[in-house]
Amino acid sequence: MARAGLTADRLTQAAAELADEVGFENVTVSALARHFGVKDASLYSHIRNAHDLRVRLAVLALAELADQVSSAVAGRSGKDALVAFANAYRTYAREHPGRYTATQMALDPDTAATSAASKHAEMTRAILRGYDLWEPDQTDAVRLLHSTFHGYVSLERVGAFHSHPRGVEASWLRALDALDSLLRAWPVGR
What we know:
mainly alpha, 9 helices, globular
């Protein structure tokens, strides 16, 4: 019999909080069961297995990130939208490190298509239309932006930039200036 009060949504939210505390890679069914003071088996009425739990966590994190980015870019265009998107992305990664890691999880195509992952791509593409970028350049630019944002926040999280006297924030702002310049002067497609 399922323990009263446990639901898939409640377990997913608790897993998200746990991920931010101990890291996404340490979110297990056993760790979650300990959090609720129940046996592992009690959770299987609500989730199929550890992979299902991690997928649910990734979907939740993608939705949270999409909401944060969407709010930040609303009513903006061009460089203002690019900077708002980037800053919201970076803020989410800083405030929710475990959840941010979950957003990088490879999802099966059906889950990805019905999750906020597709919303992220569409928001990025909307920003790029402001730079007059269309396919196939748009796909290349989406990949460039994701790689830059993810690379920067990932290196920042592990302290890779702190050994240099130039401030991390100053470099971030210059990187955004450079991306804006590149997008405005995008080279002719190949």
